[in-house]
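Tutorial, part two.
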Amino acid sequence: MTALLEAWDLAKHYPARQGLVRAVDGVSLQVARGETLALVGESGCGKSTTARLVLRLIEPTRGRLRFDGEELTGLPPAQLRRFRRRAQIIFQDPYASLNPRLRVGQTIMEPMEVHGLGSPAERRARMEELLRLVGLAPYHAQRYPHEFSGGQRQRIGIARALAVQPELVVCDEPVSALDVSIQAQVVNLLKDLQARFGLSYLFIAHDLAVVRHMADRVAVMYLGRIVELAEKRALFAAPRHPYTRALLAAIPHPDPARRGRVTPLGGDPPSPINPPSGCRFHPRCPFATEICRREEPPLSEGAHQVACHHADTLPPADLDFTGGLSETAARRLARYAEAAAAKG
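Running the prediction step on this input gives:
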């Protein structure tokens, strides 16, 4: 697949009294047409800042961006507006991301008006079509955001993002503020819309169960940098970075016998104002050696990239979260299926 979005060495540093806050510090990634690249990591690792950088909602301290072969770095405002029609965002908070003074229909039609798309009648028809696509009704266009639940508001946010027919949608933790049952509905809606319109997603999340359902590839961030990037099945089946292993070990397991067999990751991430020397993960890593404290590992090449000095010599991960049921649960489900079949 050809790359739709490409980023090289993106960084965003903020001045502070103690020095520079290195929110993002050298991120390189690609999103292909029609794929979902998930960006995961702990809170504060730079995921949302990266999302805003690739859309140029904030300006990078350094780095390059290219969209569909066109350089985005340094684009003048007129050309940047054309780019923004092709790349939209779904924000994390469905309560704060909608203007409380605008009716839902106005909210969805506003992007079309800004970009001069269609006549008033065509914009209204498009708005009503989008409401139906996201599971709402045309009469909802006359209501205000406070009259909707959180899940319904996020559906409105999705409809607004699709109003100008984008090719790339950045999903900045779009389900983290929703109840679990509503999360499943919104995730399935996003997948259906991707199949219908051929969308590419940069999907920001911290819930690996959601990522497992949504993503084609997964990039793991730690303290402003990507430490592992691989195809979803490869990463879940055989994580190569100790931090990725720790994230997977934190996922609740359906088999009680598995609980407690993996030691959870301890400590807090270091300050982005004063990151540790060498590998940024070494203060929390059980496999760290002197070279980890001294030299920062580069991200390797290939289909499964990892930034770890000991990635090839680590012991096998004591994990069986490979995107399916545990062995015990699978056997139990098979016995249930056989019993049900015997009953006719």
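Confidence is low (pLDDT under 50) at residues 321-337. In part three we will examine how such features are distributed along the chain.
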